[in-house]
Design a protein that fits this description.
CATH architecture: Roll
Distance between the termini: 58 Å
CATH superfamily: Hcp1-like
CATH topology: Pnp Oxidase, Chain A
Radius of gyration: 23 Å
Largest sheet: 7 strands, antiparallel
Number of strands: 9
């Protein structure tokens, strides 16, 4: 037993309280309810086949809510070193899409890359002409039939463009669906601060839905 009493330690760490807390605000979130929306504008919208953009929301099978960190320097005034932030750092964003037999999904990102760096000149375009906003939604279902979903969290990824179109494996030994994973870079992201009002205990509120 410690000779000095610990002041105000956590109490009531029991499973009943844990279960009660986990069931508040609609219960625990799952990572398989999400939506992604790519929004080309301006020159990029004119050059890309934007009719496929809506389809990509349905075909996006995996993604990340990207992280944010800080680049630091070590400083020492007295005692141990201190890490002080000097610059924000954002993780790349990888999105995975299921491909259809038309190969429109691969062509879409090939065309996007060719806008950035045409293969006939290899001259790079201006970033404003090939970057766009990508919206990431964390979703929940309001019914057991999955016929109504609402967004509870949203990130707006700014000035995004595909950095890498990852290789697509081909194998005579299996017949899995073809997929394409694309890694995006961007400048920063911002958060929509107003969650759906129905998340407060899942009470009635105005409709805030995402068209997929």
């Amino acid at each position: 037993m410690a000779s000095t009493p610990i002041t105000e330690p956590p109490r009531n760490l029991d499973m009943i309280t844990m279960h009660s807390i986990s069931q508040q605000y609609g219960g625990l979130q799952t990572n398989n309810r999400f939506a992604v929306r790519i929004i080309p504008t301006g020159y990029l919208q004119q050059k890309l086949n934007t009719t496929i953009v809506r389809d990509l929301t349905y075909l996006c099978e995996l993604g990340d809510m990207p992280g944010r960190g800080f680049i630091t320097v070590d400083l020492r005034y007295y005692g141990p070193n201190q890490k002080l932030p000097t610059q924000a750092s954002y993780d790349d964003l990888t999105l995975g899409f299921i491909c259809r037999k038309s190969s429109f999904e691969r062509e879409f990102f090939d065309d996007w890359h060719n806008i950035i760096n045409p293969t006939n000149t290899f001259d790079f375009a201006y970033r404003d002409d090939y970057s766009c906003k990508i919206e990431l939604f964390q979703m929940i279902d309001l019914s057991t039939n999955y016929d109504e979903s609402i967004a509870t969290y949203k990130l707006n990824v700014h000035n995004a463009y595909p950095l890498t179109i990852n290789p697509q494996p081909m194998n005579w030994a299996d017949n899995n669906f073809q997929k394409i994973n694309v890694t995006f870079t961007y400048t920063h992201f911002t958060r929509d601060k107003d969650p759906d009002p129905r998340m407060n205990g899942l009470v009635d509120g105005p409709d805030v839905t995402v068209t997929r």
